[in-house]
Automatic annotation (TrEMBL):
Name recorded for this polypeptide: Bacterioferritin-associated ferredoxin
InterPro entries the record matches: BFD-associated_ferredoxin, BFD-like_2Fe2S-bd_dom, BFD-like_2Fe2S-bd_dom_sf
Family the UniProt entry places it in: Belongs to the Bfd family.
Superkingdom of source: Bacteria
Transmembrane portions of the chain: none
UniProtKB keywords: 2Fe-2S, Electron transport, Iron, Iron-sulfur, Metal-binding, Transport
Keyword Protein transport: no
Lineage of source species: Bacteria, Bacillati, Actinomycetota, Actinomycetes, Kitasatosporales
Domain spans labelled BFD-like [2Fe-2S]-binding: 3-50
Species name: Streptomyces plumbiresistens
Length: 74
């Protein structure tokens, strides 16, 4: 299933990047560009990271909708 349609990034790719140490949406963006164009996938990325990929990580502000919003919330 695609998480980021802009760059064709799948859920499996996000999980792999998380397993390799990318535990924030910004780190996922650095690894594969997901979340850097329209931003509609950022909440999905947050959800994937919050579901055990990085268990010690807390989700940022739920009102954030783009990567830049997340960066401001950090």
């Amino acid at each position: 299933m695609f998480v980021c349609n802009c760059f064709g990034v799948t859920e499996a790719q996000v999980k792999k990047h998380a397993a390799d140490g990318a535990c924030t949406p910004r780190q996922i963006a650095s690894a594969c560009k997901a979340g850097t164009d329209c931003g509609s996938c950022v909440r999905r990325i947050q959800a994937l990271l919050g579901r055990g990929a990085c268990p010690s990580r807390e989700l940022p502000d739920q009102g954030a909708s783009t990567l830049s919003d997340l960066e401001e919330a950090a």
